[in-house]
Amino acid sequence: MPAHLTILASGSSGNCAYLETDDTRLLIDAGLSARQIRQRLLGIGRTPENLSGILITHEHTDHTQGLGVLAGKLQIPVYCNRLTKEAIETQFQAKLSFRLFNTGSTFDLGDVSVDTFSVPHDAYDPVGFLFRTQAGNIGFLTDLGHATKLVIERVRASHALVLEANHDVKMLNDDTRRPWATKQRIFSRHGHLSNDAAAHVAEQVISADLKHLFLGHLSSDCNSPELARRVVAEALHKIGATHTHIEAASPNTACATLTLDVTAQKTAAPLNATKEIGMPMESPSHSSMNQMRLV
User: In the chain, what are the domains?
Assistant: First the structure.
């Protein structure tokens, strides 16, 4: 069964992605307004009412902006760790239906197995994800100041990877609008990856199986899609890794849907808007509930 991944938005102003398998429909982060999330889902023939859950990497507003309205109104389960839950509860007055996981644990959502792992970022308990599906594995590294050995090992099994490439070092240094304290935060080991740092991560995780690399969380004024892609592509080319398609995601428009099917060894076009299959929200499986606590 194929898996469909659509990066609905990725950038300093908002991050949100949609993952669909035969049994499961997930949002990864909700950093757009609820209205924008609905509109972008409708653009691929999907609706938020059919979501199985929303997974949150961390509590920063560019990852949670639409969560209160979307999950509160529709009572979509929100999957996160305890510290992220507590931070989210201070942001939104809406009563949300949380499903808590322990960072480092693995749990099942329908036919998707979700690996969680800690990443270094200036949030309460930020995480990365590896989604294991029958069609292949999809990694998410959206915000991190540096890649630890744990991070590298956890995403090395990816067939598709979303990797932060936030800024160009020179452009950020030369930026006159940001105070030095802000630059220090971004440059820090708990800040954001530069293009060069992202290229180094890509060199470490590259394998014959990693065919699709999405560069995410690009700064709108201290980076450019062309620059980020060129830096990473040149680094991979130097080590002979020319088989990976590299695409820079945008906060303003959704990327074309990637259809992952490792068995068939093919990638396909965007989701067909006429192919909507109604899928009511379901509670996690018994095996999931054994590893999670309902709040």
Answer: 3-262 (3.60.15.10)
